[in-house]
């Protein structure tokens, strides 16, 4: 069998960029060839190509072509030559897509199958049937067909041939035979030139919602499987039961094969979707200023301050379905401070399906703004947190006004959050915070003198 049937080898595509490199290539072999060309994507015409990019949900219209059949040899069913000097003409062909084959599941995940078809597992392996009825045996002629009015149809137009299309199971078969007396298809040009492709059938594929990776979609050049589920071969009087081999009428033999036959595949590259989220809120809120003591009492080495930030978010795309999503991992955040040493995110803890906590390795430094930048598919999201001890009124200046603001907060005439007014970090607002505010202003208890300190303008809007 190998002396008249072979598949054209191709280098495996490992990246989307490599897949794009195929866009300008085609089957240039001078041997008789079956080729697959994508001609439409999402019902929009594209330049015919044997490789294209797609995303989950895309439909791809594929046309089957045959070329250079006259460069082959006429062989008996056992592969021996009939007449080495005679150039074949095309009188019949058969092309089969077999969805048992791995090529339609050859990506990293998901599949590329005929539009409107689903799959289930039956006693003979994979069984295909239309999703619009859910009943095996229905055909899908809207997405699997031969257009005899196609300008490049193998046997011309005006009723020169009869065709059969099978689309009611895993085998999608295109078979046509030329009527006796009609004009045979043309010859292949001499070596060094490229024979025009002749159209043989159309299949509309759909990329599954979970598809990723590179799918190498091929015609079936295998023998009939042992379970006998493939239909009989078309115009084959030999014992090999091979598929996809063009045939010719010949004075010596009523049916004779053309050999060799090559098969070129179509590659559909589906990039892995990038993780993408929208950050909706942060706590503490953007441009919050921490007005509390910057370190433990009489212990300047034990820094105190904001050590965690909570985010709420909505998911744009989370291909792995993890919580937290990978685009909210530690590496997705960059921290910088206007002075001092900026902290870093050491871990991200999921709080709810749509909220996380960023855990920092150290408090944000006192006397500075710390900027937290998140980078994902939507672009940069930036928010800032300040630390200015004694700045109870959050005006970026520490002075006596802040002590008075704290008095007003305790009297109930003003409001202060704990981040603003809990200067001694006791967890509650009380008279002790007024005492500690005075200590911060004067530099008592190992604190620096914060009275008169000023934060620069925030880096965040």
Distance separating the two termini: 73 Å
Helix content: under 10%
Alpha plus pi helix count? 4
Q: Give the low-pLDDT segments.
A: 1-29, 121-126, 223-254
Calculate Rg over CA atoms.
36 Å
What gross morphology would you assign?
rod-shaped
Record field, number of beta strands: 28
Residue-averaged pLDDT: 77
Measured by DSSP, the beta-strand proportion falls in 25-35%
Largest sheet: 7 strands, mixed
Q: Structural class of the helix and strand makeup? A: mainly beta
Question: How would you describe this structure to a colleague?
Answer:
This protein is mainly beta and 461 residues long. 7% of the residues lie in helices and 35% in strands. The protein is built from 4 helices and 28 strands. The protein has helices spanning 16-20, 400-411, 418-421, 431-442, and strands at residues 33-41, 44-49, 51-53, 59-67, 73-75, 92-98, 112-114, 117-122, 125-130, 144-145, 161-166, 171-178, 198-207, 213-217, 247-248, 256-259, 262-263, 266-270, 276-283, 288-290, 295-296, 299-303, 308-317, 333-337, 345-352, 355-360, 368-376, 379-387. The strands form 8 sheets. Strands 1, 2, 4, 7, 10, 13 and 17 form a 7-stranded mixed beta sheet that branches. A 4-stranded antiparallel beta sheet has the order 19-23-26-25, with no helix packed on it. A hairpin with a 4-residue loop joins strand 11 (161-166) and strand 12. Helix 2 packs antiparallel against helix 4. The model is unreliable at 1-29, 121-126 and 223-254 (pLDDT under 50).
